Amino acid sequence: MNSFQLLMEGFAAALTWVNLLYALLGVTLGTLVGVLPGIGPAMTVALLLPITFTVEPASAFIMFAGIYYGGMYGGSTTSILLNTPGESSSMITALEGNKMARRGRAAQALATAAIGSFVAGTLATAMLVVAAPLVVDFAISFGAEDYFALAILAFTAVSSVMSRSVVRGLASLGFGLVIGLVGIDEQTGQARLTLGLPQLLGGIEVVVVAVGLFALGEALYVASRMRHAPPDVIPVGRAFLGRRDWARSWKPWLRGTALGFPFGALPGGGAEIPTFLSYAAEKKLAKGDEFGKGAIEGVAGPEAANNASAAGTLVPLLTLGLPTSATAAILLAAFQQYGLQPGPQLFDHSPALVWGMIASLFVGNVMLLVLNLPLAPLWAKVLHVPRPYLYAGIVVFAALGVYALNASVVDLVVLFLLGLLGFAMRRFGLPIAPAVIGMILGPMAEIQLRRALAIGAGDIGVLVGSPVAVVLLALSLLALFTPLLRKLWARRRTEAVTAPSQSE
């Protein structure tokens, strides 16, 4: 059965009344949390992970996908109206979007962000339909050493890209790997790092780790830095685009899509790099001097790149089980809660789930466009919600969700300890995503390493015995040292520029 037929079956599953309601709930929640600064799709999906015990997998992932896309949409609203990005990937949007809003063009800025997100999301999801089966066909031949090398690539790429320094990223990864060791060793049966507590013999629940580090840690961090002054929100009417705005926006939408999708599919690529490249490209191609004063191209291109990267992120997640962003790591945790492992076998064993989720992205994009254009003034009012009530509610909801898993006080204690760890990591600039990815992929990497060494009779050379493994390990080294080389290059350029001026 070809991809088109599978996609049609996915639409049949996604267009049932139940799944349409879950999709609507997901995109609404996603937009809401994207609008609120400090609450992103990763935190929201983490908070909702406990529902995986009661909701059917297809419905849950349709809702999670809606939250993911909705969060990308909503981040532009707070960037434009408040000059405070709801997501790091929306930082570039704030450069021109807020200036447009202060010039009285907030409606046009929100409209080009919403329509550009729709265009980019739809085109990028179509690319996902084409790319995913090709990657699956390639990944079927992977051996144990290839999967171990793939995990190493995920560790190094995410640690180096999602942090201000490689050392901090690797430190965060180390925390996650240690958390992943808690429990019984599958091969020897020995208890590891359980502190003598029988409740920890099965390991720490992924839900507890995700909710503790993302939701609780973020709530504590925001509370510690909370400003009591009311936000200065720029008023906005119904979002719309004039004919001239359409003419200036459609090309940046397409260019942003072309940049965002491939970067999202790369390990550690993320959305920040393509949004910056899109902004730089539009600034270079601009004919007038409007950039820096509120150019609509500076909103259209980066927003398109931002949403296209979200679809790109799903390519390695669904086909290889490789998360390349914080939200993708939480989605991987959700798959594991259902006893599912993303990868080539997922497309064979659960095609209805995978293609239903992909089809729901098309449906969710339409819903988001309908929600964002006429309801822009309503989303702006959400920014006035008192922060103390909001984050107190997050803490209570996180505790109730975790306690409902096993009715265990130990889980609550672990949750609050991880929340304090998440707060400390934010306080000292350590990214959270590498820790979660280390916790999720660490056990898989350990199993594949032991399996490869067993096949090779203990010979460590088996880890580089496959051409795929060699390429993946080489990419890991490149990902690890690229930030260091970039800093050295920037320092040399600075010295070269300052040397002539000092000699004069």
Automatic annotation (TrEMBL):
It comes from the Bacteria. It holds the Pfam family TctA. Coiled coil: none annotated. InterPro entries: DUF112_TM. The chain crosses the membrane at residues 12-39, 45-69, 109-132, 138-158, 165-184, 204-223, 352-371, 391-421, 428-448, 460-485. Residues 20-437 form the DUF112 domain. Keywords: Membrane, Transmembrane, Transmembrane helix. This is Putative tricarboxylic transport membrane protein. It comes from Nonomuraea soli.
